Amino acid sequence: MQRDELMSLKETGQKGDFLLPYVVNKTVMPDYYTTFPMHWHDEMEIVYVEDGEYIESVDFEEYHVRKGDIVFVNPSVLHSFRLCDNKRTVFRSVIFNMNLLTGNSMDACSIRYFVPFVEKNYICPVVISADHPHYEKICARVKSMISVYDEKGEYFEIRLKAEVYGLFYELFRYVFVSDIGDSALKDVTTKNIKAIIDYINENYMNNITIDELADTVNLSKHYFMRFFKKYMGMTCIEYINDYRLNIASNLLLTTRVQITEVAASIGITNLSYFNRIFKKKFHMTPKEYRFSVTHN
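The structure assignment produced for this chain is given below.
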């Protein structure tokens, strides 16, 4: 099996398709993984925590998220998450492209609301908890968006769009705050982090050096390492390994590929090293992980 074919298994179904750019995923920690490294995507993401608690990092700020909380990750915003105190945590992620609402047309809704929202002219709390005055309205909308997708009844695509429009109505009316300010320094930092992440995404299967990554953002090797640790909360090597191991864990669950081939597909040719860092992250060997998850 070629590396591109292996990766196609990881990407399939994550963010919907052209006809319906909308998907709802379920994450169970620590069953699937305990951390997910910093990343970003063009789609809007809304998370509803069904059980447990975890730490969500959004735009370089950390939030302790608990059962019942709703997390909003706007398009193109850097974010990551990690398990808190190894407590079993379950959350649903609603991911959709804003084209679902605009349909690539510039009507009054797009011009007045959705384009300014995407351009970050509105502020929305990253986390809305039960103590928010309009939590019940927002939570009801998000739960409905999840259930409609899960059930996929007759005409569900129409209901999905109606529910998403309904959510944004509640958000614009009760939650969003207009903000036309901007931070040039934060924009530069975000741009550099995205460039680094994109390079890792495209080259994780190869031997990536610190010098290569530093060159992508025109920083010295010394400053780059300090910059990366400051904004990512881990060293560059730790991030690359974490990214690779998340891909490997998915391949172990979704394919019958030999463990040596899984390791090679993520750029690790030393099987002993792969087993060691895998066990450090998941507290079991790759073989034990594949068996324990597929038999539970």
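Interim note for the steering committee: The mean pLDDT is 86. The CA atoms of residues 39 and 198 lie 9 Å apart.
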